[in-house]
Write a structure and sequence with these properties.
Layout lengths: L14 E4 L21 H16 L10 H17 L2 E9 L2 E10 L3 E11 L9 H20 L6 E8 L7 H8 L3 H6 E7 L10 E3 L9 H13 L5 E3 L7 H6 L4 E5 L8 H7 L23 H18 L10 E4 L3 E3 L4 E8 L10 E9 L5 E6 L5 E6 L8 E7 L8 E9 L6 E9 L1
Parallel strand pairs: 4-5, 4-6, 6-9, 7-8
Antiparallel strand pairs: 1-16, 2-3, 3-5, 7-9, 10-18, 11-18, 12-17, 13-16, 13-18, 14-15, 14-17
The chain binds D-phenylalanine, zinc ion and calcium ion.
């Protein structure tokens, strides 16, 4: 026996979820999932990116300008990293190429699609942070939260960021008009978010009765969060002023949220919502001053949460079912004072790994106090599950839970075992990952 180091406490952040290798994972009973809180800080970080993009590209993110292309690239790469299937659709308007970004969350019933969208272009006069960086960033963070929580709804979720809205709803109209009829009928609802952080905000929900295909179900789903937090809403008729219009014309049920543009807030509205009566909801609407300073963060926060609440309830998600399990049963000898690895290649798992990734370990060894054991994510990030504890006990077997929510699931994971003390040796018998 060698140099025996006894470290009596578990390392911080590691949860021993089950002591027996054979212990079955307990599955939570099915229930409707409440929507998670959407991080305002993350939405603001996305908005800051859009502001920088404008600042670095002549002050705007308008159709046909480099700031628009950069906006598309930014949003697309964040979605790709999270496990979305993305595509960019191009069209021509006013002699320039425009782009729509479409992102599908893998899974759900693809003949029953809930689509949500907003326009990503600004006017050429300014950076378009409220109009419509706000809706674009809120949608992005909701989409990333879907991935982070590995939401598995019954309906299929699709997100759209539209080009050339400011030239007359060009991108969204192009998208809808080019959908094959069969695909069009699979989109059962469309939610639109155009201006959700106005500096002198109102809380408007698109009226189901004020549009050809307004839907009382969509309207109620969008109102629900505001009722929960005690914020009164008003119904508004946005008519053909934003990107839901093309969907409505195609007979698709539509709804949306809006915090107001050039119209002035009445005394009654200032009474119930605060802010300034006799002043526009957004006095920088379509102006160069539509910058980060033109955002009411409370309105942005409430609307982002309301979007999530609507999507979670309308998509009829249930508790995430247990995902697939992967195992590598190949024996790997652990020579003395050496480091060995056993790989598991994960494929077909959408998005990120769960926040509670269950790592099953069966290491036979004559002295586990020698061992340092890490799980390596596909990008190489190490999660320590054992660090020379356990005194004079031998094998290391059990299920360890690591928070792998920031890791993309697909790719090659490794169990790395380092024997750090002389004399005792062993074998990796098997190990597994339960997603
Ligand atoms: N469509 C918005 C714009 O981009 O100018 C303004 C707007 C949004 C007006 C929503 C009404 C409702
Ligand atoms: Zn606009
Ligand atoms: Ca040893």
């Amino acid at each position: 026996m060698g140099n025996r180091v006894t470290i009596p406490t578990l390392s911080a952040g590691i949860v021993l979820a089950g002591l027996l290798w054979s212990a079955p994972a307990t599955a939570a009973p099915p229930e409707t999932l409440a929507a998670p809180d959407i991080s305002l800080a993350n939405v603001q970080a996305h908005l800051n990116q859009l502001q920088s993009i404008a600042t670095n590209n002549g002050g705007n993110r308008a159709h046909g300008r480099p700031g628009y292309q950069a906006s598309i690239d930014f949003i697309r790469s964040r979605l790709n990293d999270a496990g979305y299937t993305t595509s960019v659709q191009s069209f021509t308007s006013n002699g320039a190429t425009g782009f729509n970004l479409i992102a599908d969350w893998p899974g759900g019933d693809t003949s029953n699609i809930l689509m949500s969208g907003g326009h990503l272009d600004s006017v050429s006069a300014g950076p378009g942070i409220n109009d419509n960086g706000s809706g674009s960033s809120g949608l992005l963070e909701v989409a990333l939260t879907v991935a982070r929580t590995n939401f598995q709804p019954q309906r299929h979720l699709r997100f759209g960021w539209w080009g050339a809205e400011e030239l007359g709803l060009v991108g969204s109209t192009f998208y809808v008009n080019n959908l094959p009829a069969a695909e069009r009928s699979r989109i059962r609802g469309y939610l639109n978010f155009d201006m959700i952080g106005s500096p002198n905000p109102g809380y408007f929900v698109y009226s189901s009765s004020g549009q050809p295909t307004g839907s009382i179900n969509l309207q109620r789903a969008l109102e629900a969060h505001f009722a929960t937090i005690g914020v009164p809403t008003e119904l508004t008729n946005v008519g053909g002023r934003s990107d839901h219009a093309a969907f409505a014309r195609a007979g698709i049920p539509t709804g949306g949220l809006f915090t107001g543009a050039e119209v002035t807030k009445t005394a009654a509205q200032a009474q119930k919502w605060g802010g300034s009566s006799g002043v526009a909801f957004d006095r920088c609407y379509h102006r160069s001053c539509d910058t980060m300073a033109n955002i009411n963060t409370t309105a942005l926060d409430r609307n982002a949460d309301a979007i999530a609440n609507a999507i979670w309830s309308l998509a009829a998600g249930s508790t995430t079912p247990p995902g697939p399990r992967f195992e590598n049963p190949t024996d790997v000898p652990i020579p003395d004072l050496s480091t060995v690895e056993s790989p598991i290649t994960v494929s077909g798992v959408a998005g990120n790994a769960p926040a509670a990734l269950a790592v099953g370990v069966d290491i036979r060894h004559t002295f586990r106090g020698d061992l340092v054991v890490d799980v390596l994510a596909p990008d190489g990030t190490a999660y320590n599950i054992h660090n020379r504890i356990g005194g004079s006990a031998d094998n290391l077997t059990g299920t360890f839970t690591i928070n792998a929510a920031s890791e993309v699931a697909n790719g090659t994971w490794r169990l790395r075992v380092r024997d750090a003390g002389p004399q005792d040796i062993g074998t990796i018998n098997t190990w597994s990952l339960q997603f």
